[in-house]
Write a structure and sequence with these properties.
single chain, 103 residues, alpha+beta, 3-stranded antiparallel beta sheet
Length: 103
């Protein structure tokens, strides 16, 4: 059961960051939204970064950690293969954004 909750949280962080590419998402805000620790957000962000290291950005703004995705190129979905592969882990919440043949 805990693995399912962790996957849900990871999918939430990924989709939130992915679909607002130009916006920074602060660790403290994500922590409040998911009702989890800052350490959990750091772990989730690390998993996303390992999946798509060339697009994942992080930094500090006045001592506050932020996360953001920046696509190198855009296809018609705005996603590359690695992003589609990672997003497929979140199949149910992503069905509206990914072509059926990928599933």
């Amino acid at each position: 059961m805990n693995q399912i909750v962790a996957l849900d949280k990871n999918c939430y962080v990924y989709t939130k960051i992915l679909f607002s590419e130009d916006k920074c998402h602060y660790q403290s805000e994500l922590s409040k939204q998911l009702n989890c620790s800052a350490q959990t957000i750091m772990r989730l962000a690390n998993e996303i970064e390992q999946s798509i290291p060339s697009c994942f950005l992080t930094g500090l703004d006045n001592g506050r950690r932020w996360y953001r995705l920046q696509a190198k190129h855009h296809n018609m979905l705005g996603l590359d293969y690695q992003e589609l592969n990672y997003l497929s882990l979140c199949q149910e919440p992503s069905k509206a954004f990914i072509p059926q043949e990928i599933f």
